[in-house]
Amino acid sequence: MKRILIIEDDPIIAEVQQDYLSANGFTVEVADRGDVGLEMAMRGEYDLLLLDLMLPHTDGYEICRQIRKISNVPILIVSAKKEEVDKIRGFGLGADDYVLKPFGLGELVARVKAHLARYDRLVGSGEWRKDEIRLPGIRVDKKSRRVFVNETEISLTAKEYELLLFMVAHPNRVFRKEELFERIWGLEANGDHATVTVHVSKLRDKIERDPSRPQYIETVWGVGYRFNL
């Protein structure tokens, strides 16, 4: 049974999330303080985190930053902060999704299930693990989920890795941001392109010799992105 940690200081919201997720077959624990939630999350016992941003003692941004140093576990930010800058900051720190309050419980469960399924495929299925991809300057060991640029290993978040793997599997093809969002995150884009933009930018920083003049991930202006071989 999948274990979910909710880090949320509003007891009513936390209780509703916990009850609905429990009714859908998940084991759920709640932390109502940021520092407590971070300590619990760092144990590595959870399959997914639901994270508020405005928390006492330690905010959600710092929790996300610390978790991404040690784990690629899916992190879904659930927040009333709806400015684009807040979403960009969250994605930039490694969050996998951003759900605005108030939210529909059905939608929340659907997103949780989608991210868990993709994470399981990423780290657990034979298809994802059995091969190695070799490109000029890049090597992806799918069995161990390790990525090397000029034989130097780089660290990618779960979504950065999944995005890279998808694009190298479809070289020289242009993908719209909406398509990448739907393929990687598995949900309708709903006009939110910040997720893809931030993840492409961070991926370029890690794999490109000069991110301002990318060799691999090319921006096709007015359309989307293409992985060049």
UniProtKB/TrEMBL annotation:
<dbReference type="GO" id="GO:0000156">
    <property type="term" value="F:phosphorelay response regulator activity"/>
</dbReference>
<dbReference type="InterPro" id="IPR039420">
    <property type="entry name" value="WalR-like"/>
</dbReference>
<dbReference type="Pfam" id="PF00072">
    <property type="entry name" value="Response_reg"/>
</dbReference>
<keyword id="KW-0902">Two-component regulatory system</keyword>
<keyword id="KW-0597">Phosphoprotein</keyword>
<dbReference type="InterPro" id="IPR011006">
    <property type="entry name" value="CheY-like_superfamily"/>
</dbReference>
<dbReference type="InterPro" id="IPR016032">
    <property type="entry name" value="Sig_transdc_resp-reg_C-effctor"/>
</dbReference>
<keyword id="KW-0238">DNA-binding</keyword>
<dbReference type="Pfam" id="PF00486">
    <property type="entry name" value="Trans_reg_C"/>
</dbReference>
<feature type="domain" description="OmpR/PhoB-type">
    <location>
        <begin position="130"/>
        <end position="229"/>
    </location>
</feature>
<dbReference type="GO" id="GO:0005829">
    <property type="term" value="C:cytosol"/>
</dbReference>
<feature type="domain" description="Response regulatory">
    <location>
        <begin position="3"/>
        <end position="116"/>
    </location>
</feature>
<keyword id="KW-0805">Transcription regulation</keyword>
<dbReference type="InterPro" id="IPR001789">
    <property type="entry name" value="Sig_transdc_resp-reg_receiver"/>
</dbReference>
<dbReference type="GO" id="GO:0000976">
    <property type="term" value="F:transcription cis-regulatory region binding"/>
</dbReference>
<feature type="modified residue" description="4-aspartylphosphate">
    <location>
        <position position="52"/>
    </location>
</feature>
<protein>
    <submittedName>
        <fullName>DNA-binding response regulator</fullName>
    </submittedName>
</protein>
<dbReference type="GO" id="GO:0006355">
    <property type="term" value="P:regulation of DNA-templated transcription"/>
</dbReference>
<dbReference type="InterPro" id="IPR001867">
    <property type="entry name" value="OmpR/PhoB-type_DNA-bd"/>
</dbReference>
<feature type="DNA-binding region" description="OmpR/PhoB-type">
    <location>
        <begin position="130"/>
        <end position="229"/>
    </location>
</feature>
<dbReference type="InterPro" id="IPR036388">
    <property type="entry name" value="WH-like_DNA-bd_sf"/>
</dbReference>
<dbReference type="GO" id="GO:0032993">
    <property type="term" value="C:protein-DNA complex"/>
</dbReference>
<keyword id="KW-0804">Transcription</keyword>
